[in-house]
Structures are given as C-alpha cells and as structure tokens.
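In practice, a research group might receive sequence data for several interacting partners and want a quick structural hypothesis before committing to experiments. The following worked case mirrors that situation: the sequences arrive first, and a predicted assembly follows.
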Amino acid sequence: MEEMSKLICITCPKGCTLEVTRDGETIIKVEKNGCKRGPDYAQAELTDPRRMVATTVRARGGIHPLLPVATAAPFPKPRIHELMDALRQVEVQAPVKAGTVVLANALGEGIDILASRDI
Amino acid sequence: MIKPLYDVIVIGAGPGGLAAAIAAKQNGAADVLMIDRDLELGGILLQCIHNGFGVEIFKQDLPGPGYAQRFIDQALGLNIEYLLDTMVLDVIPPAAPDEHHRIYAMSKRTGLIEVQARAVVLAMGCRERTRAQIRLPGSRPAGVYTAGTAQRWVNVEGYMPGKEFVILGSGDIGMIMARRLTLEGAHVNRVLEIMPYLTGLTRNYVQCLLDYDIPLHLRHTIKRIIGRKRVEAVETVLVDERWNPVPGSEEVVPCDTLLLSVGLIPENELSRKAGVKVDPVTGGPVVDDGFQTSVPGIFAAGNVVHVYDLVDWVTEAGLQAGKWAARYALGLSTAAGRVPLKAGENVRYVVPHVINPAALANESIRLQFRITQPIEQPVMIEVRDGEKVIARKGEPYARPGEMVNVTLAPKHYDDVQKASALTVSVVKR
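A structural hypothesis for the assembly, expressed as tokens:
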C-alpha cells in the first residue's frame, strides 16, 4: 500500500520538507526537494539513518583537558550511544594535529573518529 | 615585537576577524594585527564542536574547531601578527587627516599599550542575552546559565552543569546543547519557545530534538524559577498572541538546571565609544557594501554587525570587510555609500544599510536581511526603486530564523545609479 510521509532533509541548512511516497520499504517518489540530494537523503533516512557525531575525548598535556573529535562520515544513528561509550575510554596525549585518527574503525563500522583541531 | 603602526588592525580573532585579517593581507596590507581577549585564536567556534560548518564555503561538513583551524593555519601562513589574552579598551578615530586610529589595549603581559592603524576592522562578535535581559521572575538560585556558557563547560573545560535540564528558547545553540547534554548522559526534559515557531534552523530541530525525543513546547515560557540554593523546578506557562500567560496552563517541571538560548546581541561597546553609528534594529553598526561604518576607516564584520545563522556568511563578510579595509589603508578607496536600503514589506532590516552604486560596476553586492514573521508559502523577494522592481528572486518560503539574501549584480548598475533609495520587500507569490 502506498503511503505519503513528510521528512525534513538535513543535508544542508535549508531544511526542505520532503514529501516521500513509498510502498513499504520502497520509495516511489520524493517531492518538494530543493535539490538532488533530497531523494538520496530520503532513501538513506528510511533504510539506514546516519548522523555526524561530534564529542570530546580526554586530552593530557594540552591547553584544555578535552580534545573535540568528530566522525569522518555519518555514523549509524542507532549506535550513537554505543559510540559515546567507546569514546569515553579514549585518551590522547598532546600534541595532536587536526585530522589525526583518535579511534580507527569505530565499533567496526568502518568510520574513523578524527581530531577536530590541533591541541 | 608589536609595531607602533599597522595598516589594518582587526579586533577579535573569531571567524569574522580571521577572515578580515586574511583578506586585508591578501589585498595588499603589509602589516596586519589581530587582537583577541581569549587565550587562542578561533573565537567561539572552538566551543562549537558540532558539525555543520563549512557546507557553503568548503562544500564540506566540518566541526566548528576544524573550520576555525583552516583559517588559523591560513592566517599564520600569511604571517599575520596577533595579540592574545589582550582586551581592547578604546578605539579612537583620527582627529586630523595626518593622524591614524589609536587603539588602547591591556594584557597581563604588556600592561596598557597603544597601537595605531590606518584602518580598523571591528570583529567582536556577539554575546548571549542573559536572565536579567529577559526578566525571568522567581528566586535566584545557582543552575541558571546561558546555553553558550554550558557549551564552554561541557565542550572545552570538561564540566557538566547539571543532570536534569529545561532549555528556554529554540535558538540553535539551545537545541545543539540539548543533544550534547543528552549524549553526555543528562536528561533534557523539554525545550520551551515563547514564539509560535522555531527560532533556530529546522535541521537542528530534526537532528537535535526529534532524534533524541526531546519535546519542543511552542508558545511556552517560564513564569517562575523555583529553588533556594539550586534550581529545583521551573513553572512553565502557555502564552497568548500578546505573550500574556494563559491562566490555568501552568506546569511545574522539576529540574536542576535551566539553560537560556534566548538570542544573541552584537557586542558594540567599543563601536559606540568610537562614535560608530549603531542601528537600533540589528544592534550593530550601520555599514555600507564594503562593511565600512559611519566612521571613515572603521569597518565591521560578522556577528558584530548582525547575528548570522551560518558561520560561512560571517567568513564572507569578514573577507569583504578586510579587503575594503586594506584598500582604505592603502589610500585606494574612500568612497562612502550613497544609496540607502530600506526595509519594506515583511522585512525587519537590511544589511548593508547603504550602498555605493559605483561598486556594482565591477562586482555584485549581496543584500542580507531577516523577515518579521514566517511565510510558509512561495514568496518573491524584490528590490525596488519606488514602484520599479530592479531585482527579484523567488523562494519556496521565508522564515525569521533563516537569513534571506538577494544579490545586486553589475547588470543592475544603471538602475541603482538612478535610485535615491532602494526598498527590499518579501511578498507572497
């Protein structure tokens, strides 16, 4: 059975409200998207929702006790809390350059966690 | 070693200041100095550890510190000088044509210093509105903080300000902190918004509130803060169209911390003291298309002018201000704006406030503005000279939380030359 649902695209700050028509798992059409990234977002959001995750890890010897870090690519949404638990175990020693991998292949998802700045 | 005279001095080394300093250097200013009161370059971006920065400029989704790092590296690569942990106290414009701007600043290391500049860029950014400014009734316990203060503690200094939160205001920082605190193990009971609509970006509503099942209560505010030493609860209330509490709608919500995300105010104490004219609507300096203020040789860029919702646009404004500051310092440009821009139908304000039509001969001018109320249907943005439409652009909707822009291009040169004033309006299609 076809059903229409609304979905707010978060790919860019514009935040289009997409109108997605689907039959079960299959997307039949996407409307009201401002650009071609809208349908891709709708497909991903309905089958494998992901988010960028930004947090901090402990840092020793830096100007601050924390180093901000972020996922190199969007991370599976259902496992974000698990990822936070894993990152609570990570500690780095300054100096660290922006872009350094602080946790490789997090939770086996194939996504690295990178330092967001120099410290 | 600090020199006695610089071509361009930039006050504030956040995204606006960094961009201005970089552009000044790239446009021929030999000696450029940034002065910042923090211990490091980068400004508030350093505590904005979330992603979403750089999508416009770099076509990449960067965290705040990563976005800042790119400009810090670029500024250092250009040998731009800087003073940190230094507070600027006064900017004094020249009293005679052969004099320069004098800047007085203090630091623990140097004591009081005076430096001079041919041109100055004000890039002090903005500050959060506090409890006192929104007159929240109730007792005055610990546990009431601005969202940005909590952000600094959680993301930079490593402190959790509480366990059970209520957030007042649906601005971006408030929503982003709601998610951040949830990820760090706190519980965010709800976000309250006095307006009937979201004031931050829609994408933040999705990825910060909906993703974590944090309720948003529109048309709600806080009637009273309860607690003696520490916040114990807040009493929330529904408001009517005129913001009056609706009797009987009160609810006591237990919490130990209340965060305020109730707006940002451009920080212009220095500007006012320097004699710069400030627009009462934006709270920032009146500027022309090169971001020059009412005082010749003093430029302003970024959130000090008006509060942006994207750092990418702050950078763009900084680049523009820095370029024109360099031209001014080198004696290449002193032309002041001539055609004023007025806020028309549904428009709250327009930046720049005045444009120099000659500038359109070579480059485009981007007009930025905010609207007064949400229009959830297709709209037309119009730039008019009297009744004559000079430029127009369609948008699917317009919301106060999202800055709107329209560009005047060299093809509009003739029309703008003839105009004595331009009006920007947003009308339903």
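Before designing any experiment, note the following. Chain A touches chain B at residues 8-10, 12-17, 34, 51-56, 63-66, 68, 70, 77, 80-81, 84, 98-99, 116-118 (CB under 8 Å). The mean pLDDT of chain A is 91.
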